[in-house]
Amino acid sequence: MNITIKKWGNSQGIILPKIVLSALGFNVDDELKLDVEDDKIILSKAEDFDDFSDLILEDLINSGFEGEELLKEFKRVKKSMPMAVKKLKRDILNEYKNGETVEFEEFFNV
């Protein structure tokens, strides 16, 4: 199936056929994640991002942080989370591609 890029005001866009969207479970106003891999555009449903705030706070409190230091360290750790999650995903994918597997307990240290 071929589609054409069209001009939309100052932007450009494509129209995806309803049958394709329905087959993928996409609906009007769904938030989609757009990735580019090699020469491909990949659309998938956006996932709600868990920022792990509760786990970060619990860990920091257990480490002895309190008051202003707790707030300062929380902001620092929280700011680094998206990149850490991205790196974790990349590492897991590379291990999978290399045929390496890790048991649940080992991965989560339980």
Please render the helix and strand layout as text.
Blueprint: E1 6-8, E2 11-13, H1 18-24, E3 32-37, E4 40-45, H2 53-62, H3 67-97, H4 104-108
Antiparallel strand pairs: 1-2, 3-4
Helix pairs in contact: 2-3
Shape: extended
> Would you tell me the overall average pLDDT?
85
Gap between N and C termini: 48 Å
- N-to-C series of helices and strands: EEHEEHHH
Oligomer: single chain
The helix tally amounts to 4
Number of strands: 4
Q: In what range is the share of β-strand residues?
A: 15-25%
Low-confidence stretches: none
Structural class: alpha+beta
Which features does this protein show?
110 residues, alpha+beta, Pemi-like Protein 1, Chain: D, 2 domains, two-stranded antiparallel sheet, two-stranded antiparallel ribbon, 4 helices, AbrB/MazE/SpoVT family DNA-binding domain-containing protein
